[in-house]
Task: inverse folding
């Protein structure tokens, strides 16, 4: 069978892949997307930052998103140990931009983005999993994939975009997936009905609860359903008894955080509790000759600050721009994507440094105490996803105070 051919082959149809494909196809690039699953399907990472708003505008999806998902104007940070709490509004950021975001059930949101990519002209093949990357003279040149019926197919391309998420096909193939020291944690998550939530404009706030084992999220969706999860240190995960059901262990976990325990008091769990391990990792290289990574496929810092969706959607817009420039120049070598890689590395490090400082209680003491207005504005800016491009003064100072590597 003759191989399929395209100019740009995107592996993965989640937000990173779908946005990259949609923006390229809109500009007339010949794009094919291979997605292993059939959409819609469940995924973690259900809270957007305002950084996504501009990209959704560019795709003509802002009104559709605003009409079907709960608006989010800020983040409530709470500490179960001290009982202190603060609300950070996006309009406190240095460059607030849209100053709002949305809480998105990912099955529906990802389907919306993938359909948008198809509507712009990308060829989307669902139920087709990339298994290996083909290289010619050291440059990526396509993939070998397998369809649901077991048939193997070859797809040839001028450029491969790895958007395979935590599967991280290229990093895994190259042996370039490395845990982030000190960030070894496991996420437990489920959906609930009738979780307590704030009223008025704050109804859509993301609630982040710091507690002895890590942190807990409470993400309210439009209607009565919320996503609640706990990202726990692995030493706590090892306290689970051999015969203890994951649901029982989850209940025991959130019992150690008064804010979460109270919010769930009258709720009903709608889904099984799922466990997700090994989320935080790094790769030495995000790009190479004939290939580029986007979203979680290039590494993942920590989900504490909506880093995943911010880097996926904001990173996809920058990946698409880098790919268009490389195609125009006829240079698909790693050097064509060096600026993109530096931008994504810097953004990821900003999230990582902030998360480390929150876990160490260094930053939470500042934010939950009588912190200076400049600290509030800087933290709100990180929450808003203002992490890309050259560092303004606040960001340079933040990096120095809260470095990624320590």
Result:
């Amino acid at each position: 069978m003759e191989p399929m051919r395209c100019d740009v082959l995107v592996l993965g149809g989640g937000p990173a892949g779908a946005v990259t494909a949609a923006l390229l196809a809109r500009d007339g690039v010949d794009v094919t997307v291979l997605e292993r699953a059939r959409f819609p399907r469940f995924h973690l990472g259900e809270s957007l930052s305002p950084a996504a708003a501009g990209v959704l505008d560019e795709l003509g999806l802002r009104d559709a998103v605003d009409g079907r998902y709960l608006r989010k104007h800020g983040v409530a940070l709470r500490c179960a140990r001290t009982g202190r709490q603060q609300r950070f509004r996006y309009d406190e950021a240095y460059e607030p931009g849209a100053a709002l975001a949305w809480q998105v059930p990912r099955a529906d949101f990802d389907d919306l983005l993938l359909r948008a990519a198809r509507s712009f002209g990308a060829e989307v093949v669902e139920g087709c999993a990339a298994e290996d990357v083909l290289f010619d003279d050291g440059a990526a040149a396509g993939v070998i994939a397998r369809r649901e019926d077991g048939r193997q197919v070859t797809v040839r391309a001028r450029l491969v975009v790895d958007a395979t998420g935590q599967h991280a096909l290229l990093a895994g193939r190259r042996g370039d997936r490395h845990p982030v020291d000190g960030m070894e944690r496991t996420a437990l998550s489920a959906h609930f009905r009738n979780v307590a939530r704030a009223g008025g404009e704050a109804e859509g706030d993301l609630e982040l609860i710091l507690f002895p084992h890590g942190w807990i999220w409470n993400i309210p969706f439009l209607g009565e359903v919320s996503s609640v999860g706990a990202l726990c240190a692995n030493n706590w995960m090892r306290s689970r008894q051999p015969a203890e059901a994951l649901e029982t262990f989850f209940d025991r976990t959130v019992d150690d955080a008064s804010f979460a325990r109270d919010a769930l008091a009258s709720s009903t769990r709608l889904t099984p509790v799922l466990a997700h391990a090994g989320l935080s990792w790094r790769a030495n290289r995000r790009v190479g000759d004939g290939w580029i990574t986007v979203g979680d496929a290039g590494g993942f810092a920590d989900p504490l600050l909506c880093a995943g969706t911010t880097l996926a959607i904001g990173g996809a817009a920058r990946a698409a721009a880098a790919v268009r420039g490389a195609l125009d120049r006829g240079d698909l070598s790693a050097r064509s994507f060096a600026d993109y890689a530096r931008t994504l590395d810097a953004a990821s490090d900003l999230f990582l440094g902030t998360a480390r400082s929150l876990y160490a209680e260094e930053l939470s003491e500042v934010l939950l105490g009588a912190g200076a207005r400049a600290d509030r504005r800087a933290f709100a800016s990180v929450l808003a996803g203002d992490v890309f491009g050259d560092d303004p003064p606040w960001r340079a100072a933040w990096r120095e105070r809260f470095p990624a590597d320590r």
Notes: The first strand starts at residue 4 and ends at 11. Residues 4-70+101-176+281-360 form a domain with the FAD/NAD(P)-binding domain fold (CATH 3.50.50.60). The chain has two domains: 4-70+101-176+281-360, 185-277.
